[in-house]
Design brief:
The protein is mainly α. The chain has nine helices and two strands, in the order αααααβαααβα.
Length: 171
């Protein structure tokens, strides 16, 4: 697909009221990190904005956490109990149960029943999910994202004075 085709597809997605807002976020400005960081920097000043790059966070979580504490002028020696992954990738065991436990109207109705309590609701959601590995992103999608976000990454590179060229370098 050409950049024009991608823009056309993005325009169609953004104007379609039936399409999920998460998809709109991913195809719109929501993934343009430069614009978000720039907006905060403009409003609060660069010295009042601390950017955490996920690459750094995932490579060395305790150090990224320490840097946030230092930025916030909180004692950097404070350590939480652990840095375990809390919200890992999961897949649904039973789609019907998932739809039922994800439907806000049914949840509100169910909570009115004396046997349905929040702990039971949460237990059902936990029992209906199974940890799984995230599927790898296709090379085609990675290439499209690199093309779509190239300018944004270059601008972010300059704004935070950080080399992020590995985000746009083709394999």
């Amino acid at each position: 697909e050409s950049p024009d085709e991608l823009i056309s597809l993005s325009d169609k997605i953004m104007s379609d009221p039936t399409i999920n807002s998460r998809i709109k976020f991913l195809t719109g400005d929501g993934v343009k990190y430069y614009q978000q960081v720039k907006r905060y920097s403009d409003v609060f000043g660069e010295q009042q904005v601390h950017v955490v790059i996920f690459d750094d966070f995932s490579a060395d979580t305790p150090n990224a956490y320490k840097q946030v504490l230092e930025f916030l002028q909180i004692d950097p020696s404070y350590q939480p109990g652990s840095f375990e992954i809390v919200n890992s990738a999961k897949k649904v065991r039973n789609p019907f149960i998932h739809r039922f436990t994800s439907n806000q109207t049914l949840i509100k109705l169910g909570m009115k029943l004396p046997i349905v309590t929040l702990p039971i609701y949460r237990a059902i959601k936990v029992l209906n999910s199974q940890k799984t590995e995230r599927p790898p992103i296709s090379r085609e999608l990675i290439a499209k994202l690199r093309d779509m976000l190239y300018d944004d990454i270059v601008q972010l590179n300059q704004l935070i004075d950080r080399d992020l060229t590995h985000w746009i370098t083709h394999d």
